[in-house]
Design brief:
The protein is mainly alpha-helical. The chain is built from 7 helices and 2 strands. It has a two-stranded antiparallel ribbon with strand order 1-2. About 3% of the residues have low confidence. One of its GO terms (cellular component) is plasma membrane.
């Protein structure tokens, strides 16, 4: 004779619950990768002596990776709760929480941290790139925490290419532009 419906449901639930667990080495790997990727972005900011540098970027990425890990793995009992249907052993587990909600709140909160890097001096606003990089490492941390390593690595490489490559290109363009403006001022 086959398994009872209740036993099959329990077995199905056990298989689904295994998806929601992560090993300690998996956690450590994700946090170290988040720190390394954010460190690369933060090093560039720190090298140029901006408000948020190496340590700040690493801390943001580790924090957001930890929150993503907590969001996915810390509340697994809430994600797969079939206790609402104790009389029906065939009931599918209910989703009582959404792991993306915590990540969405993290992105909003990081905006406030990034805003602290933005300053206005006379007619110039400075710190926008640093604020953006803090927000970006939060996204990198969330990607790594969720296990999207390739996405986080490619994203980091793209950010570094933009920060380093476009910075040089921008400096080149500005250097060519300044003499042109001065010559126009002398003509007037």
């Amino acid at each position: 004779m086959g398994k009872s419906i209740y036993a099959e449901h329990k077995e199905r639930r056990h298989i689904v619950n295994d998806i929601w667990h992560i090993s300690l080495s998996g956690v450590v790997l994700r946090l170290l990768l988040a720190a390394a990727l954010a460190g690369a972005i933060g090093f560039e900011r720190g090298w140029k002596q901006h408000a948020a540098g190496f340590r700040t970027h690493i801390l943001v990425a580790i924090g957001t990776a930890s929150l993503m890990l907590l969001s996915i793995y810390g509340f697994s009992d809430l994600y797969l709760d079939s206790s609402n249907h104790p009389a029906d052993p065939n009931a599918e587990p209910n989703l009582l929480a959404d792991p993306a909600r915590l990540a969405a709140q993290v992105i909003s909160g990081i905006g406030f941290l990034g805003a602290g890097a933005i300053l206005q001096k006379k007619e110039t606003v400075i710190g926008l790139t640093t604020a953006a990089s803090v927000w970006i490492v939060a996204v990198v941390g969330l990607c790594v925490g969720a296990g999207f390593y390739f996405c986080a690595i490619v994203f980091t490489a793209l950010v570094l290419a933009i920060q380093i490559g476009l910075s040089r290109f921008e400096s080149f363009l500005m250097a060519r532009r300044k003499p042109h403006k001065e010559s126009e001022a002398h003509k007037a």
